[in-house]
Design a protein that fits this description.
The protein has 103 residues and is of the alpha+beta class. The protein is built from 3 helices and 7 strands, in the order H-E-E-E-H-H-E-E-E-E.
Length: 103
């Protein structure tokens, strides 16, 4: 059973923990990607420190300081089982992955 609220505010998600179904911490939400053309539905959660840098579009400004630190990790909203008290829990067998350049 999915326990995701029908309506969420981005500020409720930013900074929340993201855990695998077994409780393993994956990181904290730095950004939320939505589709305006689909009624502002959440599509992706972006995690981690690199995600914060990406959120504020600072990668180019920080240049060599962030090189080699990887890409932001993302989680598809469809992989989310529930959101409760500042913690996003993923469905069993789901995890974060590195974001592709075209995402």
């Amino acid at each position: 059973m999915t326990d995701r609220p029908d309506t969420l505010h981005v500020e409720d998600l930013i900074g929340s923990r993201v855990e695998e179904a077994n409780g393993r911490l994956l990181g904290h939400i730095a950004d939320v990607v939505v589709k305006p053309e689909a009624g502002y539905r959440i599509t992706t959660l972006e995690l981690g420190r690199i995600g914060w840098i990406d959120r504020f579009d600072l990668a180019r400004a920080l240049g060599r300081f962030v090189e080699g630190h990887g890409k932001p990790c993302i989680v598809a909203w469809t992989d989310v089982s529930r959101f409760d008290h500042g913690t996003v829990t993923l469905k069993p067998g789901r995890s974060a992955r590195e974001r592709d350049d075209d995402e």
